[in-house]
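for the recovery benchmark. tokens below, seq after
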């Protein structure tokens, strides 16, 4: 009962008027900030030896960085991010992962940046 009353008090102002519950709204993004507008891997699940294509689009940058993290496999430890390369702001890249891999795209600098990830499951 006390928990219910406490919650009611949180959403009612001191004047007794109901208040909107606090919300987790994303921070506003400046129109000139680096943005990853699309980053996908197709297909998302493959068998060893099959190929995938990474597809991306970024805004307000000239280039993006691609990295990969390979899941632990066959007794080997997983790998932290390993650099794949620097690429134009929009593009595609064909790869043939042998193990489940997380691909990470990033752009920008220390003052403003963006990143996204896509996972490919190798069965």
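predicted aa per position
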């Amino acid at each position: 009962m006390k928990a219910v009353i406490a919650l009611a008090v949180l959403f009612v102002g001191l004047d007794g008027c109901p208040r909107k519950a606090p919300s987790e709204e994303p921070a506003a993004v400046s129109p000139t900030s680096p943005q990853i507008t699309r980053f996908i891997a197709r297909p998302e699940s493959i068998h060893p030896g099959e190929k995938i294509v990474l597809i991306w689009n970024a805004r307000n940058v000239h280039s993006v960085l691609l990295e990969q993290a390979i899941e632990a496999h066959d007794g080997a430890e997983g790998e932290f991010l390993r650099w794949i390369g620097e690429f134009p702001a929009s593009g595609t890249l064909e790869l043939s992962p042998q193990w489940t891999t997380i691909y990470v795209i990033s752009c920008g600098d220390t003052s403003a940046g963006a990143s996204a990830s896509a996972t490919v499951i190798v069965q």
